[in-house]
Amino acid sequence: MSYFIDTSALFKRYQTEKGTNFVCQILENSRQPVFISSITIIEVISNLKRLFEVDKITTKEQFLQQRSFFYKDISDLNITILDVAAEDIIRAEGLIIERYMKPIDSIQLAIALNLRHSNLIFVSSDARLCKIAEQEGLETLTP
Q: Which end of the chain, N or C, is more open, meaning fewer C-beta atoms within 10 Å of its C-beta?
């Protein structure tokens, strides 16, 4: 089995909260492919920056450490980054037409659906997104 991890789940790796251990186990112990979208990169960095600049939860040093750790993980854990393609946008629109979804969620799900990787598990902390992913035929995990 392989994993497509959306931002809501992956972020737990860099900011300790409920589900952090679960996500860390997937990333550190899986010998199977792990995929993220290119959008996830900017979402993770933006969320880390928000913790520092807006929420004042972390320091600048912590932000820089978390950012560095994130990029190190991509390299060291062989995380495959999937770019957004035109077919993903078309599928995302179709998902939105069927039911309201946030634009980023629809793109994340469309990329996972278009991956067509056997035994793919969609990992997200968003229960509603997981429900939609299941309706679309994906197996899901919620940390």
A: N
Number of H helices, E strands in the chain: 7, 5
> Which residue type, as a one-letter code, is found at position 137?
G
Dump pLDDT digits (tens) for 104-142.
999 999 999 999 887 999 999 999 999 999 999 999 999
Give the full edge-to-edge strand order of the sheet including 139-141: 79-82, 34-37, 2-5, 120-123, 139-141
Range of the domain at 79: 2-141
Residue 2 has pLDDT above 90, yes or no: yes
Percent of the chain with pLDDT over 70: 100
Q: How many domains does the chain have?
A: 1
Residue corresponding to tokens 């902390």 = 125
Domain of residue 132, CATH code: 3.40.50.1010
Joined tokens for residue 27: 């990333």
* Residues 134 and 126: beta-carbon distance below 8 Å: no
